[in-house]
Amino acid sequence: MRYLLLIYGNEQTAAAKSAEAQAAEMDAWWKYTADLQQSGQYLAGEALQPIATATTVRLANGRALVADGPFAETKEQLGGYYLIDVPNLDAAIAWAGKMPNLPDGGSVEIRPIMEFESPAS
Amino acid sequence: MTSVPESIEQVFRREHGRIIASLIRACGDFDLAEDALQDAFVQALDRWTEHGVPDNPAAWLTTAARARAIDRLRRARRGAEKEASLSELTTPDEGVLAMLDQGHDSSLEDDRLRLIFTCCHPALNLEAQVALTLRTLGGLSTTEIARAFLVPEPTMGQRLVRAKHKIRAARIPYQTPPEHLLAERLTAVLAVVYLIFNEGYAASAGDDLIRRDLCGEAIRLGRLLTALMPQEPEALGLLALLLLHDARRGARISTAGVPVLLEAQDRASWDQAAIEEGSALVERALRMRRPGPYQVQAAIAALHAQAATPEQTDWPQIAALYSVLASFSPSPVVELNRAAAVAMAYGAEFGLALIDRPMVAGALDQYRWLHTTRGELLRRLARWEEAAAAYTRALQLSDNTAERAFVTQQLAAIRTAAGEER
Questions:
Q1: Is the dihedral of CA B174, B176, B178, B184 positive or negative?
Q2: Is the predicted pLDDT of residue B91 greater than 50, yes or no?
Q3: What Cα–Cα distance (Å) separates residue B30 from each residue in A73, B3, B34, B122?
Q4: Each residue of B124-142: pLDDT tens digit?
Q5: Residue B249 Cα to chain centre, angstroms
Q6: Are B241 and B298 a contacting pair, CB within 8 Å?
Q7: Which residues 134-193 in chain B show a CB within 8 A of chain A?
Q8: Closest to B282 measured CA to CA, from B272, B295, B301
Q9: Which residues 51-90 of A have a C-beta within 8 angstroms of B?
Q10: Once rounded to an integer, what is the mean pLDDT over residues B359-374?
Q11: Residue B104, class by beta-carbon neighbours within 10 Å (0-12 exposed, 13-18 middle, 19+ buried)?
């Protein structure tokens, strides 16, 4: 079963870290990714650029309205994701529980992937 | 001789958990299992009325429910084939049908542990855990659970539907947790059972019977847990705690509906059999030398229950046990209870000193029992004005009629005592 692990954290906390601390964190992420890949349960994963680079598109009066942002007043921002394939939710929780953003107060949202039946040919 | 509908009702309540647990494992679907079992009960009502109740009604029901589950799956498949030209819809797995067909009597196997751990999985919210546990293991209807928890039936129905949907969609595993997760998951299971008990314990005489019977339901679940996990001292501790509390249930509210303090309760009315069973369970649990909060609370309850008179209560021991409890689960309420025990063991002034610390009095200012306890200790110290002030504060915080009557009574007694002194 496929799950998307959405990685949330506070960008300011991350940016305020010393260069050594940031390097140590990157090492933790490389190791985490390598462990996940070695387990055979890794499908995909990416880190996202900070929320300052985000653009939002909405429909307004039938036309696409483009805006800078979002600037929702949230403490945590989506910073990246992993797509994994594991037997069940407990296995997904186990991977989420080892995520390097957790010690900094971040969180991981686990979302099961919706499976569609392939259309008849 | 019991009538047939009565027997079915009895079998239903007694065997529901076991049958549904085995059906869910076989077909992997809570809803299908529930529907099939419902079908089987309807069938049983018909057949047993005519032919009498079979020797092993649970096995009969399990077999019938399995057959009904297969029927339902086949019907769903035939329906699907008709539409196969339009799109290839989900068809029931052949493996599932084969497993259901095997007919080996897996009702002998106990799947109830898997069921408990699935119902109490931390990915479900606590309310859903409670509802699902009562629905599946307890065999209560949605209507009954809604009445017991004082919520509208559609709300409870929605809660159950969402929980079952999440189990399926997020694939919450149907299994006993592995060793490294067991302690943590067991804590969640025990918390659900304790919560069910406390809902029933909070119910008053005017409440619906089903609400009051939540205590009995929780004790049944506690017995099940200790039967399935006899080596888990905290499960034993919880069952002991429930039995010891339940033993005093009738004595703690007067016929007028006013709460009766422990020292004023009629000890002859306490259920001695429950006290003996609870005390024996605590001892058995403590001998395993893996103490935990439920065992300690049960030990405290046992000391209260075993005292023939309030004066014979072993307060120093109780005060010591509260210190142990505070080390497991530190909280202002535990500290308040410890202070009350210290006051009984060593004098009101020592208890009061423990209460009047920021971590207790500061944290619990909105908690009426803080003020009734303070009021009581101040009364014993003949500090009348402060005692009256504390009880007045408690009165402001209480919206329960019986409690207000009790506090008002205490206030009147204090004023009388203060007047006599002048």
A1: positive
A2: no
A3: 40, 30, 6, 18
A4: 999 999 999 999 999 899 9
A5: 15
A6: yes
A7: 169-173, 175, 177, 181
A8: B295
A9: 87-90
A10: 92
A11: exposed
